[in-house]
Amino acid sequence: MARYRAPVELDPAAYDAITASRAVIEALADDVRPHYGVSTGFGALATKHIAPEQRVQLQRSLVRSHAASSGAEIDAEVVRATMLLRLSTMATGRTGVRPIVAETYTALLNAGITPIVGEYGSLGCSGDLAPLAHCALAVMGEGDVRVAGELLPASAALRAAGIEPVVLHEKEGLALINGTDGMLGMLSLAITDLQALLTTADLAAALSVEGLAGTDRVFAEDLQQLRPHPGQAHSAANMRAVLKGSGTIAAHASNGFTRVQDAYSLRCAPQVHGAARDTVEHTTMVAKRELASAIDNPVVTLDGRLESNGNFHGAPVGYALDFLAIVSADVASMSERRTDRFLDSNRNGGLNAFLAGDPGVDSGHMIAQYTQAGIVSELKRLAAPASVDSIPTSAMQEDHVSMGWSAGLKLRRSIDGLSRVLAIELLTAARGIEMRGETPSPVSAAVIDSIRERVPGAGPDRYLAPDIAASVELVQSGALLAAARSVTDLH
């Protein structure tokens, strides 16, 4: 839904849960005792009593003041994921909002109305406050949004879609901004992307083994079982499938394998890619738990109490996002090392220096590896965890925060970088296999054919950036994986 605009529909059972929790809030509205978010201020101002006639203004002011983001506009898929996950929490019936609020979020998502959110504004605690506030502001008919890429005032976009802006009542403004939805949305998207990219990394590594005349014997199933990490077995199986039927590999049986051992970047690819897979599996478990959560403060309990809590703290998600940035950097680092081996005539098994058509006159892929190296260097910086930092806010009431939103943003950049590094490796491996001149495996042949539909083969040097851009698009779109899967089953 966040990425491909699938329609959203509330489960009818959610209406009963939402209505029941709203009744709890309305019963507390006239209580003489203070109830946080219902009849009090917020954060460090929680001790201030708010008179009934000021409570609509209280919720409106909360959203307006917290919609304070700044910086570059966040991708629409992140904003849509954020809105969908806040709607999911509303549907649990634990937030105390009225059904009309959930219905309006559903209507905005289905109309393709995406609030504008800046990159700065969330510390990943007390919820992704500023990003969620911008979403709530749009539901109120205020702020700016995009519809089909066009920047519009929210009021105009809602009017064109026939959606009535919501006037927020007691607790509703608070309920709309107090969740880990932004960082969880980024985690969910990242897991999806990395699952595809790690299979792409297996594919790239196998093509590099073939192009560098390496051996597949180290990927044998019985050797992998001696260290029974599931991700390692998974990646090794992928690499065996890609290399099956390779003329280069088959030649070792008659000609012998001239090296005692392949370098680590070839031989240990299943161990590194497998560890990455197992890390993604761990973060998937975290995401599933978070998706099953009802995060709000205060929260309406199952037995009808309104209770303060700390479930909005983003540490579980922030840690997971940081783990994945480490994974992304290390897989990219290994990919760059394989590319570098292709370009060094002392290590590439008899291929031209830099895979150039006429070395000296031509530079081949020399600078493509520079591009990889620059990306990998940045990915290593992005792997430094955001979640170890904390800056106190709200007059020391919020004195420890997760920085999970920041972890999510840097992970998104890291994943983009990983896809580019793998694209350059695949471009280089395809060229190396062709220059070696032996029969490629059926999978490698299908992948090379897919690349050659967009990128010419070896020859005199040409403008290289468009070749790289085409390979990146083939990786990011999944076209190269699809080509490989047309021949064999890769996971």
TrEMBL record:
Its EC number is 4.3.1.3. Keywords: Histidine metabolism, Lyase. Pathway: Amino-acid degradation; L-histidine degradation into L-glutamate; N-formimidoyl-L-glutamate from L-histidine: step 1/3. This is Histidine ammonia-lyase. The keyword Oxidoreductase does not apply. InterPro entries: Aromatic_Lyase, Fumarase/histidase_N, HutH, L-Aspartase-like, Phe/His_NH3-lyase_AS. PROSITE patterns: PAL_HISTIDASE. Its main location: cytoplasm. It catalyses: L-histidine = trans-urocanate + NH4(+). Belongs to the PAL/histidase family.
